[in-house]
Amino acid sequence: MKQVHGHPKSLYPIPTKYCGGCGHGVIHRIITELVDELEIREKAIITNPVGCAIWADLYFDFDSVQPAHGRTPAAATGIKRVLPDHVVICYQGDGDMAAIGTAEMVHAANRGEAFTSIFVNNAIYGMTGGQMAPTTLVGQKATTAPEGRDPGAAGMGYPIRVSELLAGLEGSRYIARGAVNSPAHARKTKQYIRKALEAQIRGVGFTLVEILSPCPTNWGMDPIQSAIWLEEQMIPVFPLGEIKNTIPLSTQQSGNPGL
Questions:
Q1: For position 258, what pLDDT does the model report?
Q2: Whole-angstrom Cα Rg for the chain
Q3: Is 203 part of any domain?
Q4: Of the chain's two ends, which shows fewer C-beta atoms within 10 Å, N or C?
Q5: Which residue segment(s) compose the domain that 39 sits in?
Q6: Is the pLDDT of residue 56 over 80?
Q7: Contact assessment for residue 195 and residue 243, using Cβ atoms and an 8 Å cutoff
Q8: Residue 127 lies in a domain
Q9: Which residues on adjacent β-strands are paired with residue 142?
């Protein structure tokens, strides 16, 4: 009998610390499935910073580095330059990448640093208590915006579309945005991450996949409500799909690209 589904070898079989309905666990599953399928477990290194992503190294059964808040792209840059034959994954939340770590990510993308960034966007600060993030939607409530984000209010501004921002830089080669609020979206997101990792393995420059992810606890919803809210409210602001793809056609192949 052929086994068509199982637990990824690269994912530790331990109970989750994430809140019920959180998307991080689904994203971890997708990443570890691809690490196994691409046979890169001995070459994979993930960098995960402060935020909910700080727990990621509890689940990934391959090498990890935990940089300071927002400095993940800088650490990933150094690791990739020292170990160019390794597959380096930069795992960041929206508060981390789009706020304290903006400079590091923008310049890494502009330089064309050859690592893959996984950008988890749940439109809120998760671990620190539900404050307004750079990606918080207009009108969305947060602990620091109890009446909802108001672009006209001092200090609030508009939600930042990180993927579109980075796609405008010449050093970025592949930028896509997926979601994990439904099985169909999760499958498509896996395709985007696979393409980004394969591009890195073949020596293409900076690649990033943004993932819209539910945060039921800080949104004040149950998991089902949060999945619906993401579909109805977040996706119109952050449209899904490939935003930039300048990967040479000769490298866009299916199957295991090898190392």
A1: 47
A2: 17
A3: yes
A4: N
A5: 24-249
A6: yes
A7: no
A8: yes
A9: 145
> Tokens at residue 3, please?
């086994």
What pLDDT is recorded for position 259?
Answer: 53
User: 104 in a domain, yes or no?
Assistant: yes
The structure's pTM equals 0.93
| CATH at residue 184 | 3.40.50.970
State the total domains in the chain: 1
Q: For residues 110 and 169, is the Cβ–Cβ distance under 8 A? A: yes
Does residue 17 contact residue 58 with C-beta atoms inside 8 Å? yes
Residues 101-122 have pLDDT tens digits of 899 999 999 999 999 999 999 9
Q: CA 14, 195, 107, 213 torsion: positive or negative?
A: negative
Tokens of 115: 């690592």
Maximum Cα–Cα distance across the chain = 63
One-character DSSP codes across the chain: --------TTB------SPTT-SHHHHHHHHHHHHHHTT-TTTEEEE--SSGGGGGGGTBSSEEE--STT-HHHHHHHHHHH-TTSEEEEEEEHHIIIIITHHHHHHHHHHT-S-EEEEEE-SS-TTTTS---TTPPBT--BTTBTT-B-TTSTTT-----HHHHHHTSTTEEEEEEEE-SSHHHHHHHHHHHHHHHHHHHTT--EEEEEEE---HHHHT--HHHHHHHIIIIIHHHS--EEEEE---GGG---S----
